[in-house]
Amino acid sequence: MAKFFGASDQDISDGRTTDIYFERTMKVLHERNLLGVDTLSEFTVASLPDSWPWGVFCGSEEVIRLFEGREVDLVGIPEGTIFRSRSFDGIKVPLLKIEGPYGEYCPYESPALGFICYSSGVATMSARCKIAAEGKTVLSFGVRRMHPALAPVIDRASYIGGCDAVSSIIGAETVEQEPSGTMPHALVIMIGDQREAFKAFDDIVEPDVPRVALVDTYCDEKFEAIMACETVKDLFAVRLDTPGSRRGNFPDIIREVRWEMDSRGYNNVKIIVSGGLCDSNINELSKAGADGFGVGTSISNAPTIDFAMDIVEKEGKNVAKRGKFGGRKFAFRCESCFEFGVSRSPQTVPVCPYCHREMRLAEVKLLERGKRVCDQPHPRGIRSKVMKQIERMELGK
User: Fold this and answer.
1) Measured between alpha carbons, how far apart are the two ends of the chain, in Å?
2) Residues 49 and 147 grouped into a single domain
3) Fewest CB atoms less than 10 Å from the CB: which of 200, 233, 307, 338?
């Protein structure tokens, strides 16, 4: 028996993380000799959470791995694509499509949805935080707020969405970069004195690690910031971890610290903030003088994007439950404004009603009869694509 309550790779691959009604469905369809019926199912989103106008598609790499080796075709928009839930004329966009004998993918609907629902939410919130930071550094600090088995998932999705670095060791390994972090209050408490703690960190930690001092353990932030500046020769930054439960106005605290450090000639020392940050307050703190943002809960506990998977074609005929649009569809996207169009044929190309240009087919083949037919881009490349799309959206405001 596993020591911790997390599903293993084998559990997921064996369909043990699915909902029980799929197992019962498999049993019924087996008895009726229907498991081999060819079907086409699509993954769509009715609406995005919190009135988000767009999302960052993430998690499909795990969906690809889930279905590798099974007799299915998988087609969808590439990971890292900025997407909208509906086309310009209100049709739900088929962001992923899976085709093959229904029994080949029925038991895996739950984990497939889980991969993209969670990761896309995290990636989207990360992108929104990065936009709010106006180009300044955003760090993913959220792994401590979720089950530890999710650490690599959280950090990969947050990095793809826009975070410049991640805090967990395993998450950093997943995106193949060095983990980033500062120091905890526990270090200061265990040493027993702020100056001694700053000095010990500087003396002992590897020299290539930026010197960032946490300056709100015992005293007012500006006094501890001055202590850190006076103690550490090559201090890179001070960190203010000031959630709503602490006294004072956070933007004003940042201004005070910046003023006092500048007054003493420490203009080069940056200010990193953490604690209660989200896409709605980062910009205010940035304007107050913060240079970097360690974002935790709002990223790791980002709103889930509610993808659904539905059969839309059976044995070549259009089918659909109520509320869904039956039949095979193709997703197109305007490369200028990122609006989506949906067509019944890849040859029928929608024209963007805003840019008046023909859209491009947004989907690519990912698996053919269970064999990967797409590249596996590095998370760094996916993140770069996301950043370029965001830049274009911002320029087009």
Assistant:
1) 54
2) no
3) 233
Vertex 78 angle, CA 75 and 83, to 5°: 105
> Residue 89 belongs to what domain range?
9-120+304-395
Same domain, 257 and 231: yes
- Residue 393: pLDDT band (50, 70, 90) is confident
Last residue of a domain, one of 278, 300, 322: 300
Using pLDDT thresholds of 50, 70 and 90, give the confidence band for residue 1: confident
d(CA 91, CA 86): 5
**What is this structure's pTM?**
0.96
Which residue reads 């000031």 in tokens?
242
Q: Looking at the domain assignment, is residue 207 inside a domain?
A: yes
CATH number at residue 374: 3.20.140.10
**How many other CB atoms are found less than 10 A from the CB of residue 356?**
9
What's the CATH number where 182 sits? 3.20.20.70
* Count of structural domains within the chain: 2
